[in-house]
Amino acid sequence: MTILKDILYKVALEAVVGDTGTAVNEIHFDSRKVGSKDVFVAIKGTKSNGHDFIDKAIAQGALVVVCEDMPAEQEKGVTYVQVLDTHKALAVMAANFYENPSANLKLVGVTGTNGKTTIASLLYQLFSKAGFKVGLLSTVEIKVGNETFDTTHTTPDSLVINSFLRKMNDAGVEYCFMEVSSHGIAQERTTALYFTGGIFTNLSHEHLDYHSSFAEYRDVKKRFFDELPASAFALVNIDDKNGPVMIQNTKAKKYTYGLKSYADYKAQILENEFSGLLLKINGQEVWTKLIGNFNAYNVLAIYAASELLGLTTIESLKHISALQAVSGRFQYFISEGKVTAIVDYAHTPDALQNVLETINSIRTRNEELITVVGCGGDRDKTKRPVMGNIASSLSTKVVFTSDNPRTEDPDKIVEEVEAGVEPQNFKKVMSVTNRKQAIKTACQLAQKNDIILIAGKGHENYQEINGERFDFDDLKIVTEYLKQLKK
Ligand SMILES: CC(=O)N[C@H]1[C@@H](OP(=O)(O)OP(=O)(O)OC[C@H]2O[C@@H](n3ccc(=O)[nH]c3=O)[C@H](O)[C@@H]2O)O[C@H](CO)[C@@H](O)[C@@H]1O[C@H](C)C(=O)N[C@@H](C)C(=O)N[C@H](CCC(=O)O)C(=O)O
Ligand SMILES: Nc1ncnc2c1ncn2[C@@H]1O[C@H](COP(=O)(O)OP(=O)(O)OP(=O)(O)O)[C@@H](O)[C@H]1O
Ligand SMILES: N[C@H](CCC[C@H](N)C(=O)O)C(=O)O
Ligand SMILES: [Mg+2]
After folding, report:
1. N or C: which end of the chain has fewer CB within 10 A?
2. Out of 3.90.190.20, 3.30.559.10, 3.90.1150.10, 3.30.465.10, which CATH number does the structure's domain 331-484 have?
């Protein structure tokens, strides 16, 4: 049991009706989860308004209601706390409830359109190799030291974040690397956390269904840096035109990294092959198994962050050369019949372009590059034709297919992707809505030395259709078909 007053510490209060000395059990923002003596936080969401469920929460045992609009009538024995912003209040209360666990470890947030999972996961690997106990909050998984937990979000809600940070404290974790998504910032999921550092990767077209404009999307990301404390570091990719924008108003110490512009941390690509990258970082050569130009940025960011966190140059370079690719990020194998199959999470126009350009810069021109790609349902529709255009311009053959259709008609999504194909590329493309059949088609088309790229779902081990998740694994499926077809 916790006393309400303690959980409300630093919450900006508008009005309180009732007793703040009440002892409470748990905090919930979903009425369906509320139990006896809990706190219910009413949130105005994208689909419904939590204020409509206040009565239900009280009926289920809520002793405290935190809200933006005070109900006209108040129940006896229930404490009502009115605040301006319940998202923010929830984050502060979550941090208090779990005793501010972020202050007891070094927490680094990674934000940007692409590269967050890669950088956060590789920093987790690097610091683990360096002998520290490390935590990770990422799209793929949550880690508390060596223990792994499933995750549903890139940046979970503030209760989940703080409960895992608490677990990390209890396990003696010293460093935690977490992805900070734009939804996470907009919904205040990372408010009230103490960050030791922030890293910016890049900004390109994504989530314009949720954010009303690119400028709003950019400003949400920038808010993460605006809110960093003076003691933290803010490390940005200076080759991205929004890198300088991110640190315009930050109080944190500013550092830059880049391949093209003058920067505090600079790298040069010496070799770029299927087997990896040879980089020169601040004058020192380092070999990494990671592939492609964009990974040169990721590796450089990792190097810079590890130095800012106190590792020596020699130590970080040594560990960088031993880093393993992150699940579903440019994961590839060569079949017995010499077909190269690559599975990559590229689900934005920029990521797809980068991956295809990387493959094109490495391959010799005689082989086919067969791309299997689609776009998710209930997400930004404007990226569909753009990705269709990129796939068909940069591949020699394309099989358009479904990603996660969610509640949309998959054939319709495929049509919207196809709409971006220019006439000169019509003959390169075909559409097979069933993703499994699409992968099979690509395998049938492939000959010795050809390359198959399966983009969009990376590590995901399901396909979501109409609210149901079916087992689905791009890597497994392509492996099986290539074997079956004896390729
Ligand atoms: C669009 C979006 O971001 N939605 C997130 C948001 O939900 P919401 O507030 O809009 O929910 P809502 O359905 O409108 O309900 C409003 C409130 O009423 C409450 N409610 C509702 C029904 C009821 O019976 N009782 C009740 O109390 C809900 O619990 C909620 O508090 O807050 C929820 C709690 O934190 C999230 O789980 C939910 O994520 C949904 C499932 C989602 O799909 N989010 C994706 C888009 C997302 O967040 N992605 C990002 C970025 C990924 C990337 O990097 O590309 C991520 O960080 O994962
Ligand atoms: N630095 C980068 N710049 C551009 N593209 C990248 C970069 N790093 C990775 N990518 C591409 O973007 C895809 C997604 O990478 P990653 O999962 O690291 O990004 P993310 O920011 O975590 O994405 P999400 O927002 O979905 O969690 C990769 O599979 C790769 O194709
Ligand atoms: N974090 C992203 C992942 C998209 C992955 C792609 N496979 C899709 O389903 O659209 C989102 O939820 O928008
Ligand atoms: Mg991610």
Report:
1. N
2. 3.90.190.20
Please give the CATH topology (third level) of the domain spanning 2-97. Answer: 3.40.1390
Considering the domain 101-320 in this protein, what is its CATH number? Answer: 3.40.1190.10
pLDDT at 142 over 80: yes
- What value of ipTM does the predicted structure carry? 0.96
Give bridge partners of residue 107 from the DSSP assignment.
176
For the entire predicted model, the pTM comes to: 0.94
152 in contact with ligand 1, CB cutoff 6 A: no
Contact 373, 412 (CB under 8 A): no
Averaged pLDDT score across all residues of the chain:
96
What is the rounded distance in angstroms from the CA atom of residue 320 to the CA atom of residue 280? 12
For ligand 3, residues with CB inside 6 Å are 154, 347, 376, 379, 403-404, 456-457, 460
State the number of CA atoms in the 13 A half-sphere of 85 facing the CB: 10
Considering only CA atoms, which residue is closest to atom 23 of ligand 2? 114
Distance 265 CA to ligand 3 centre (A): 31
- Alpha-carbon dihedral of residues 149, 155, 160, 164, nearest 10 degrees? 50
CB of 345 within 6 A of ligand 1: the answer is no
Six token digits for residue 83? 């605040």
pLDDT, one tens digit per residue, over 195-220 is 999 999 999 876 667 777 888 889 99
Token pair recorded at residue 17: 């009706």
Percent of the chain's residues with pLDDT above 90: 93
